[in-house]
Amino acid sequence: MFLSFGYLILCQILRLVGQGLRGGRSKDIEILVLRHQVEVLRRQVARLDLEPTDRVVLSALSRLLPRSRWSTFFVTPATLLRWHRELVARKWTYPQRRPGRPPIRAEIRALVLRLAWENPTWGHRRVQGELLRLGYRVAPSTVWRS
Question: How many CB atoms lie within 10 A of CB 109?
């Protein structure tokens, strides 16, 4: 929430600065983009590693720069879209559940084990039938695995 609010404020500030420049607006914005990129490249030599603040600045400046001038970026428009997708994915993630059927309740598992222990000659199909008679719907494979 704080990051998106900061991004909106930065966009508004840059928009106000851009309105004050009028005639050579896109040229001045392009110079801002290039200066920021040079600053980022000075910080690292081997591999380009953008910090979140760098991504915010480049994203905000890309909104102000006409598409014809996007060639000045050292990141592609697809990269900007990927950053946005990752941001949205981080915001809207839900707790992951294990795949497959949910596990049976502990009381049913205890009942299966008790029936199997008390009746060693019964197979898993018979135990499943007895559970069905008692009102518990359990698959034979679940009884077999328990």
Answer: 16
What is the CA 82 to chain-centroid distance, rounded? 11
Residue among 85, 74, 91, 97 at smallest CA distance from 1 = 91
Tens-place pLDDT, residues 71-90: 777 778 888 888 888 888 87
Question: What is the token pair recorded at 131?
Answer: 């559970």
| Dihedral sign from CA coordinates of 76, 81, 87, 89 | negative
pLDDT digits (tens, 9 = 90+) for 101-121: 778 889 999 999 998 899 989
The answer to whether 65 and 26 are in contact (CB under 8 A) is yes
